[in-house]
Amino acid sequence: MALKDFAYGDTIHRCFRCGYCKFPANWVDVNNCPPYARFRMETYSCGGRLWLSRAWLNGQIDWTEHLAEVLYSCTTCRNCEVKCPLRFNVDIVNMVVAARGEMVEAGRLPAAVKNFLQNVELYGNPYGTGRSSRGAWAEGTEIERYNGHEYLFYVGCTGSYDARARRSALALSQILRRAGVSFGVLGNEENCDGNEVHKLGEQGLFEVLAQDNITRFKGLGVKKIITLSPHAFNAFKNHYPAYGGDFSIFHYTHVINGLLKAGRIRFSDNMHVRVAYHDPCFLGRWNNEYEAPREILKAIPGVDLVEMEKNRESALCCGGGGGNFQIDLLGGSENSPARRRIREALKAGATVLAVACPKCLIMFEDAVKSEGVEENLSVLDISEIAAKAWGMIGHSQ
Amino acid sequence: MYELKFDPELCLHCTTQACLTRCQYMEIDGETAQKEILKIARGEDSFVLHECATCYACEEYCTFGNHPYYLIAEKQELLGISPVPRPLIQRAVNLGIPFRGQPEIKEINGPVLNIAAFSELTYLIQGKLFDGVTPISTDERKMFHYFCQLMYLHYGRDSVIKERLPRIIETIAKHKPTEVVCFHDECYGAYTSYCKAHGIDVPFRPVHFYEYLYNRLVELKEMIRPVNLKVAYQRPCSSRLSPDKHLFVGRIFDLIGAESVKREFVDENALCCAGAIEGQKREGSRKGAAMQQQKNVEDMKRAGAEVCVFNCPACFQTLGGTVARNGIKPVHMSDLCRLAIGEIPAGWR
Amino acid sequence: MDSIYQSLAAIVDAEHVSDRPEELYIYSFDLGTAEPHRPDYVVSPETTVQVQEIVRLANRENIPVVPLGGGMSLAGLAVPLRGGILLDLKRMDRIIEVNEKARYAVLECGVSQGQLTSYLERHHPHLTHSEPGAPPAATIVGNVVIHGQGDLAHPYGFNSDMVNGLEVVLPTGEVCSFGSCAVGASWFTNHPMPDVGLFLGWCGTTGIITKLSIRLLPAKRIRGIGRFVVDDEGLVPEIFYKLTHTQMAEDIIAFSSAIPPFASKLQHFTVNIAADSEKELELKQQIIWDDTLGEYIKRGDGAYLGFTRSLERPQISKTSDYKKGGGFEYVGSIMPIEKYPECYRRGREISERHDIPYTVTGRCIGAAHSMMFAWTYAFNRADPKTIEGARNALHETDRLVLELGGVIWKPGTFGQKLVLERLDPNTRDLMKKIKGLLDPKGIMNPGNWEIP
Q1: Distance from C-alpha of C69 to C-alpha of C112, rounded to nearest angstrom
Q2: Which one of A13, A15, A40, A41 would you mutate to disrupt binding with C, by most C Cβ within 10 Å of its Cβ?
Q3: Which end of chain A is more exposed for a tag (fewer CB within 10 A), N or C?
Q4: Can you tell me the ipTM of this complex?
Q5: Residue C231 belongs to what domain range?
Q6: pLDDT (tens digit, 9 = 90+) per residue, C134-147?
């Protein structure tokens, strides 16, 4: 497609490459754009990506695998939108997604991206694991299938299939059950929410997923949805309404916070840890929620909450967005954003890095191992921390 | 052409000359006051035209509604007397020129909230209080198409108001509002007091922001929990153009459980923020403005205020920092009302 | 050429060297109007030793080396005019030392302005550096290498006047140190070898600075900006002179621009004032606005616009959006302050003729010893005609600077030629000798400051 037909063809040239986008909101370093932090070559900065996209659409450079990797290395964390001083800043991620859409149309994608999308299309998840094991995480528990409950608990692909992330899905279920929240899950009927598919530029597949999910939810009479993942939260809240999906959407931290305030959860003084909370991009910069997770942690006696230097809208993305938790274009180096973030947590004096997203959870678990600091830092989802603080000891995998 | 409805006979028969005897910036006795106001009416020079601080208060003090301040502003321009230095006039006049294209006009056919030249402050009109009203002038690139121009009173450029205001009214009317809630107090003063005084037709019903907030709070009465704060109110100059709406300040405070502290400089004795004074030509203006601001804030402190409630964003910008540095929290009235219904405004701690 | 690539990869690592079209494309551009030229390789080293090895390789193989910091010179000074190895130095971004008592910082060459500002604010709030108007991604070293100036230019001069010492990799690969660090002392002064004039101001054509000690200045508790406006440009030089006499200000700038309308045909002053107490602040404000500028206010010739308590970085990048086009470039000059009115008038005239909204700025340096006066021309990167138009306006302005008796600050190749044409021939010969001595093979950023 020529530049003139590109959705942002008349604005993409407005990037001046001034480099504000490399910094966090609080200016601490130049490592807040995850791909730039990883590679430190201008091609991987936000400005470099926009200029290259434009040059490709304009016929000045040809498609190569490297170009595609540069374009797909963006984790859609929105740091650039927060920092860019120019008026088109609200569209920066949209431009990257639209440029990716052009690559999808042309069928020219990195192999790992192709696999991701094919798996979602065929199996409803990016891992390529069969649908019939999607609900397996809940086996042996008393978690109910959704049948007119007050809330649908939407678990998501990572929470359903990933061994580590499943533990946070289980922990959350325990909390909700004990607090008397009426909820059910879709089990094997659950399908991918499509947030990453959308960010990878496959609009066609996203639409299919969205319409399919909306039809399913409406058919079941779903009105309220709790999500484990901020990615699903974002898709349901911000994209699904355009397809008629008008549900009330909650990230689980909103719900736990509400239960705490209503006195339906009571934490005991059974943990003594120094916790740093990592703001996930799709809860923080994308949806402006920085406080609910912190309020949960502050309500736990024995939790000493510390802040990393780059927190809230200055947080460094774990590097898992834009499908990269699976596609992994940013791994393999001590400069990977996840490993950098682990070092930042340690610098803040934390012994626990708390997350509120299953993708952050698995990215940081791996990074702790790569950094060799398993003795010094644990990574726990807030659901797990809250479950422990409420005296629920362990849970089966 | 629009002419000011001013009747010198009223001044001739006035027994109080309150417009000038009550002026907070000049010491004028009754006899001098009458002499000077009639001189001004006749188009002659008067020390009043040079010493005027442009605080608008005399509009309120005049018991006949004879518009002494509009008269002063008009005559200042006619006689080439300006309260501010020449480059500042040019700057101000150019500031109001829209230069980023035409606004997008959507026909609302319902109640409208005109944010006017404060498009960047949409965070002050969030939440349940504003359900059911549609904001206009939300694009800061086009906001000067909605700017009421009344600011030019401070610059001795009444003619600019008369020249531009009718077009602004036309733009607002194009949205087909059933009523126009004015976010800024001065807009309300423009579309009621100023337009009426000059015979400018206003084809919509302006609603004072505080009247709107009060009525909305009454609708949401069940949600109100007392804020239990000791508040001082920063009354803006423009409030003098709509003294009949000032009572909503007290009504809102009562409704939301805010205790209005006992101040010296309050209601008709309120001190303006001095934002329009610090750049004036008169020697000592900068220092005088700073001292007035300090006096104002000391008064709030002495009365035990925890919070200073602002009406006007310009007052907020001028005085907010000083208020905060003196240990009092600056907050906009709409944000205070949001607190009362259990919402947390951005930045509130 | 493949063996060169292998050698470079062996020096750094495979991830930080590239000869791929994407890197060559991006690194071929300056952000202004300069024509792009592709390098043959892009390398990002992490240590001085790596820089040395790359330079030695380049010498052996006769390949140009072009050092790149933030890339914000907007004069094409890091465009590889003859191809070769583009050296992206930004990975060398350690802040090595901050010495509070002697007020200096030792930095690697890739440390950015924003990084240093943030670091000082968090760890040494009583210290600051003179921060230029460039975006925060610009580097400290890049700025001194072009004789830059920042927001402490009025009290303390050019940023290149604030250097205590350097570590430099010569074009032949040796490492030299200058200043007290060279005799094994700390990096606190530029003696006993003060003549770092071999590298500062040479715009990266005589060597690669890998470390720098920069003087830090006191940061007071309250820092803010007061504003003043006049409509007669003829008053600007005397106002600069009077303000500098007070010794009460930190940064004094005068500017005028067609957009936004409130700035058009007026001269706005920003005067930075710092104080540790309300008493000190009020005293300074009194001296500046009441005692010194009060006469202009009283006459109605100048107006005080208020004081805001924060150092808001001017977002220069916004100028790039004037033509909604992501681009601008400016001619910077060092001018006698008395030339301000003419600089303004002639600048407006050139801008209007090229259909570009005019933007001019003058920053006071020292005690009104000079000013950095800049004429800025925006262009639309998607419209080549506007790039051509901006380029023509820039070239006209280069000539204007010299005509008005100023000197072009960090000129691009066009301005460099004009300067060299006028330069004292003996000085020019000496420059040639020095360059020949330091860089016998002519590999260091060839094409820039080349003496025929």
Answers
A1: 9
A2: A41
A3: C
A4: 0.94
A5: 221-409
A6: 999 999 999 999 99
